[in-house]
Each structure stands twice: as C-alpha cells, then as structure tokens.
Amino acid sequence: MKRKAMFGAIGGLAAGVALTAIAVGAPSWAKNDDQARTPIQTSVQSGAPAGGSSVGWGTVPRLADLVERVSPSVVQVLVRSPAQAGQAGGPGGLPDTFRGTPFEDFFGRQFGAPGAPSRELPDRMGSGSGFFIGDGYIVTNNHVVDDAKKVMVRLVDDREIDAELVGVDPKTDLAVLRVKDAGSVRSLEWGDSDAARPGDSVFAVGAPFGLGNTVTSGIVSARGRNINSGPYDDFIQVDAPINQGNSGGPLFNTEGQVIGVNSAIYSPSGGNVGIGFSIPSSLAKSIVRQIIENGSVQRGWLGVQIQPVTPDMAKGLNLKEPKGAIVADVTDASPAKKAGFRTGDVILSFGDKAIDEVHDLTRAVADTKAGASRDVRVLRAGREQVLKVRIEALEDSVVKTASLSGSGAPSATPGGRVALADLGLQLSSDGGAVIADVKVNSPASDVGLRPGDRIVMVNQVETATTADVAKAVDEARRQKREAVLLQIDRGGQRQFVGVPFQAG
Known about the structure:
Elements lengths: L5 H20 L34 H11 L3 E8 L21 H9 L12 E11 L2 E4 L1 H4 L4 E5 L5 E3 L1 E6 L4 E5 L22 E6 L7 E12 L9 E4 L11 E3 L5 E8 L10 E5 H14 L5 E2 L2 E5 L2 H7 L7 E6 L4 H5 L6 E5 L2 E2 L3 H9 L6 E8 L2 E8 L1 E2 L23 E4 L4 E4 L5 E5 L4 H4 L7 E5 L2 E2 L3 H13 L4 E8 L2 E8 L4
Antiparallel strand pairs: 1-2, 1-4, 2-3, 3-7, 4-5, 6-7, 8-9, 8-11, 9-10, 10-13, 11-12, 12-13, 14-21, 15-16, 16-17, 17-18, 17-19, 19-20, 22-23, 23-24, 25-26, 25-27, 27-28
C-alpha cells in the first residue's frame, strides 16, 4: 500500500472535520437550532455501561425505568444572541440570489446594502441541551451558550427559568450554568467513562430540534477519538441517532450514570449517519469542577511543539513500536527549555503515564497543576534519559502539534549537488542542505518532501551541510536501519518525517 504524503495528510484531516462541522451547523429551523450558532454541532449518543461489561438492555422496561428516573434532570437550554451582519444572506443580509441582478438595488435597501438606511436586526434564537449535577448547576456545551445575551432553561414540566452563566471552557466545549428555584430536581451522577468499551450499550436524552426530552439508544462505537476540534480531543464515538439540539445533553450507561456530554456529530449531509461524539466524563468532571470552583480552567504548560511518531520515524529511531511524541520545537523561556529538552527528543513518559501518542502528552500536561514537578523520560541519540521539569500555568490559548502545508518554502538554486538515490533525493549545497529534486514515486515523494525543503537534522543529529546529511544517512545504512528520521524546515516551520530506504 502506498504511503500518504505526510504533510498533506495532517492538514487534510483537519479540513475534512471543519467542513463536516459547517455542514452540520446549517440551521434547520430559523428560530430553534444550536447549529445556527456554532460550527460544531450536537451529538446524541449510543452505547456503554460504566462497569465495562458487554451488556445490553435485556428487556424494554429496563431502559424505560432508567429513562423515567433520569429524564427530569435533563433540560432544554434556550439562548438569545446578538444578530450578526449578513445572517440573512450575503454581506448586509441580502440573499446571494439577488446579487449582480437588477433586483440588487431594490432589495438592497431592505437588507442593509451599502448606502441604504441601517436597521436593527432581530436577535438570534438558539437551543441545546443540558443536565443538572447538583446545587442548581447545569452542564452544557460552550458552543450552545457562546456569545449569549440571555440564557434560560426549560424543564421537563415546561417551566422556563433564567440561568446564570458560571463559566466556559472553549478548548473542551464545556460550559456551566446555574439556576435558582428549580425545585426538587434530581441531580445526575457521573459514571466512569474509562470503563466503557466498544459494544457497550448507552442511551441519551436531549432536546433535538427543540422538541423537548427525546431518548435515543445505541452502543459505544469507539473510544479516544480525535476529530481535530482541539488539543484535548478524547471523544467517545457512538452510533445512536443524533440531531440538532442535542448538544450538551448527557450520555448514559446502563446504570443511568453520565459517562459523556454530547458535543459533535459527523454528517456530510446534515442528517444522522450514526457517528456522534461525546466528551468523556473522565475529562468533563475535572473541567466542570474547576469552572464551578474558579469560574475558569487552569492547565499546565510544558512549552514544546510535538508531533506523532510514525512507523517510518520509529524505524529511523530504532524504536520497536511507533509510540511517543517527538519534539519538533522548544519554546524559549518555557519549562521545557529550562529543563533541558531538545528538538528531536522523543517523549516516552510523563510522570507515571506512558506517552503512546501526542494527545496523551497534551492531556497529561494539561492535568498537571502549575508548580508541580514531573520526571519525563525521553529518547535522545539512541539513549533514554530522564528530565525533571517544573510545570507552569498555560497562559495563552495555543497548544501546538506540528504540521506543515502549502507554500512558503525557499526555492532551491543550482549548485553542487549530492544524490541520495535510495531515498529519492538530490540535495543542493546552496543555503545549507536544501532539497533540489525529488524523484517521482520515490520514498521521499511518498512522504511529501519537495524541492526547497531544507534538512536540518538526521536521526536526531543536527546537519548544516549536504556533507553532514550524507554522512548521517550513510551511518543509518551502516547500522542497517530501515529508514531515516529527517527534520526539515519549510518556510520557517519545522517538522520531522520518516523516510524509508528504497529496497534494492
């Protein structure tokens, strides 16, 4: 099977998720949809008992009993938000149908076209779901209440109560509301999402399309899904029918405990295709607790830009398995810089947690309190060593995972060249070790290398010239490695890529 180009694959996946979110977000009813408010839409759920046992419902009354017990604790979240310019069509609100036609001037005056008298647009109305967790606190999604002027909740008995926004966490798409005088509403209990397994039964209660409490059921389809919505993605994937308006609603196990907060769906057409995503309770509990206690969420900061270790990278590093997170860059004055981290280090563990993939590291660091110290095991130049790092508070919103795409690469110019035939590369000595040519259908071509890329490191050894690169590649051949690990600079951005030697 032919390898995907490394650089194109990373950017392409993110773009696909974004397009899906936009499609799902298209409003269905003008005055009752949380999609009209946000790019990522709700997800109802399907399947998983907290105990982790592969059980189903047994009999229909069993599910009915659970629904009867928990559904009064689920609410519809009603949101009023400021109007946005152009919400009725193109710029100024003029429907695109009339642009460039003789009707543009006439209708433009009504829709606020340039030069026309301005008029106040009506507020947008949206809705989602939420659930009580105690003391009047309600959990929902950040995208449901984002930019809200006013929030109310509608209870199962149709009472509508004003809600106060306690706090939000956009990075995990969670928000907490609080209401007074809700009466004796039962609080829902958090379950153990870590115990849920693919195939376990689950059910959800929410308010799709503003219809009020609606129950759907199914199974857990997968665990630990990363949909590129943020650096802390760890979704439970479920297969139950999911629709607009379920965002923020609970996902239950067969004990009636909340093991997830429904947050997103995948839908090319805007309708249900049986792929929904729920924020696991193992993450949601911690975030919600911090919002209630502090009004915000504090995360730890390490200060490295990382990327996954691919199978070819693992071969270049002589790793038995493609696990860990490779450091593509170290931020100046960061905890990592102070602790002695270097570009090319492969992080294998953080504290007592093994790092199998990059999201293991981002989540482990985020969960570490500022001021706490951790031992970090890294692979450097073929040897493992332990670095002690003191974590600081994450102040800015950027958590980086390295990826490259598109343009900005320096152009290679004629000069002395070095051929690396078994990689499919020719290097130019002008400006360092710059790729001058990439052979079609070669290993280098397959992983996305291109003319103009500058090789700055080979197998964790820095290289400044074509001779340095050739020497390091020869050493890899001598050691009978199946691939080499290159770090390239493309337009000022750096990333590692594993390139296998061509057989024969």
